[in-house]
Write a structure and sequence with these properties.
The chain has a domain at about 20-155: Sandwich (Jelly Rolls). Helix content is about 40%, strand content about 30%. It contains 2 helices and 10 strands; from the N terminus they run αββββββββββα. The chain is rod-shaped. It starts with a helix and ends in a 6-residue tail after the last helix.
């Protein structure tokens, strides 16, 4: 197996693992106040009731959208997969930002989403507490959707700061290059002026020597 094939295999396994949803199943007849249920985008909760006896102390569940590092914020959504109460024997409550109560004539919606970063409390109340069994059943599925990722925000801020620093360095370099180019004509002009002065001095020196030689050749010889 080549390196590219191994890389593709590992990538495929990672993708499949990341897409896998962990399903938590809770039955109201068996629930014994285990505490709040925490879920993230990789988890779902199936919450069911099948007409059995309801514990008067543990007749509600609280679901919280939260990851292990508390870096994300979630919105909880509930789907009604099944709801049957032909004899009107229970009241079902969904409590989040607001409290909604449902019964046999006002059944829960097919799907409902609650405000961001708010918990969901699902509770059930029997009309007749003495009854041991009821012709009632429901099945809810609760999912969590990421609405804000603080890690992504931190990465974006860091990337923006790095980009700003690079831009600042580029601007400084451009300014220095421009200043250097502006100084070059002045330097060149100074060099040319100096060369001209040297040239003129050399010219005058040569002409002076030539004139002296000419005057010497024209001078009269001395008498004895």
């Amino acid at each position: 197996m080549t390196g590219d094939q191994l890389f593709c295999l590992i990538s495929l396994c990672v993708i499949q693992f990341s897409d896998e949803i962990n399903v938590l199943k809770y039955s109201l007849e068996e629930y014994r106040c285990e505490g709040n249920i925490r879920i993230n985008e990789d988890m779902e909760v199936l919450f069911s009731y099948n007409g059995g006896q309801i514990d008067s102390l543990c007749h509600a569940m609280t679901i919280i959208g939260r990851d292990a590092q508390n870096m994300k914020q979630y919105q909880l959504c509930l789907k009604t997969l099944r709801y049957s109460d032909p004899d009107c024997e229970i009241l079902t409550g969904l409590v989040s930002a607001n409290s909604q109560e449902y019964n046999c004539t006002h059944v829960p919606p097919t799907k409902i989403c609650f405000p961001q970063n708010r918990n969901l409390r699902v509770l059930i109340e029997a009309i007749d507490l003495e009854k041991q069994s009821r012709n009632t059943s429901f099945l809810f599925k609760v999912s969590a959707f990421v609405t804000r990722n603080r890690m992504t925000l931190i990465i974006n801020i860091s990337a923006g700061s790095a980009a700003g620093l690079v831009l600042f360095i580029i601007v400084v370099m451009v300014i220095r290059i421009c200043k250097r180019r502006l100084k070059q004509p002045e330097t060149q002009k100074t060099d040319e002026t100096g060369k001209f002065v040297i040239y003129m001095n050399e010219t005058f020196r040569k002409k002076g020597n030539s004139l002296s030689n000419h005057c010497a050749s024209k001078s009269l010889p001395l008498k004895n």
